[in-house]
What we know:
This protein has 435 residues and is mostly helical. It contains 23 helices and no strands. It has helices at 2-6, 9-26, 28-31, 35-64, 67-99, 118-127, 130-135, 142-148, 151-168, 173-193, 197-212, 216-219, 221-246, 250-256, 258-267, 274-284, 288-301, 304-320, 327-340, 350-361, 371-402, 408-418, 424-428.
Amino acid sequence: MARRVLGQLYVQVLIGIALGILAGLLVSEFATKLQPLADGFIKLIKMLLAPVIFATVVLGIAKMGDIKEVGKIGARALIYFEVVSTIVLVLGLIVVNIMNPGVGMNIDVSTLNAGSINQYQQTAQQQGGFVDFMMNIIPTTMVDAFAKGAMLQVILLAVLVGVALVQIGERGKPVMDFLDAFLQCLFRIVSMVMRLAPIGAGAGVAYTIGKHGIGTLWSSGHLMLAVYLTSAFFVVFVLGAVARWSGFPLMHFFRHFKDELLIVLATCSSEAVLPRMMEKLERLGCKKSVVGLVLPTGYTFNADGTCIYLTMAAVFVAQATNTPLGIEGQLVILGVLLLTSKGSAGVAGAGFVTLAATLSSFHEIPMAGLVLLLGVDRFMNEARAVVNLIGNGVATIAIAKWGGALDRRTVEAVIAEQHGEIPKQITAAPVTIQH
């Protein structure tokens, strides 16, 4: 019994996290040297993302055989992303004005050392505007998209190849057979890499606590509390309502994706579990074409946790530096964030970079105030990453339900299995993923 329990990935990850916490508290200097183990695990997964996304999207579209349906999926996804992003940004503004985490800090901007945020400012400036963002979706070459691991570029290529295979019909079958076998090989590699998840998770937690220490939480504890409470409210009430409508309530979602949630919590990287999320969403009954299009695109256009952080952090800096910011100013920030929150995926410290880009275009709030967030940004990044993951998982299920691409019998079978009730049809024909 104990051996079977210890064989579960989520149990191993929990043990890794616990050991990481102890290492960070007891041997902090040693713990700070463990970050390469976490980074190495994430890099192993990232090297597989581009081919996994490409093959999944191409096969999904080619097997669907209906180009119009692909367009409908994309349109539904963009509508959903924009509506939910607006809701979460407004929610962040409301809560930060109620809790006022920065009021009373009375920080003199001239005393802040802005040198520590120079790298974020430079990265933000390099991102450019909306036109640059749209142009960057088009790769220089097909190989360049895979070399850079640019998610949207890979999706664009995959859609074009998938549509081409639909148009050429039977002549494209050898290509589909090759991609099918190649995808199965990639998922086998993913399963091998995931055995290192407990090491990556433990190292990530150890580095965070060893580097920043628990004591750094007190300096901006009020802001952290506000961000975590808002994140919890959004997940439970907003995403919870969407999940119930989709027919897969939130508690079942947590059970189904518990391994992935724990890994993201420890590594602060939702990309580390993207292949596993795609696999499990298909196992849940979501059509391959929907999973392939919606989930990777959501990583760029549907960063719910990042949106919460952006609104609250921007207003926090204004409050802490005694910068007057009325309703009109906050609405301007909201409008800017609706654009800037979409273009930071794949950038190191994406939330912080996006915040820097936002404040640079809204000159009333001093950029130097970002220094106040550096100490706790890593801790808040955990909330951002977990909420982003939950938001994109729920979004994929909801859009599949919206478009009639969710197998209700499979969903009910997964729920029954969680309760220990294995239906006869599951025994006869297990729920598997057809790659």
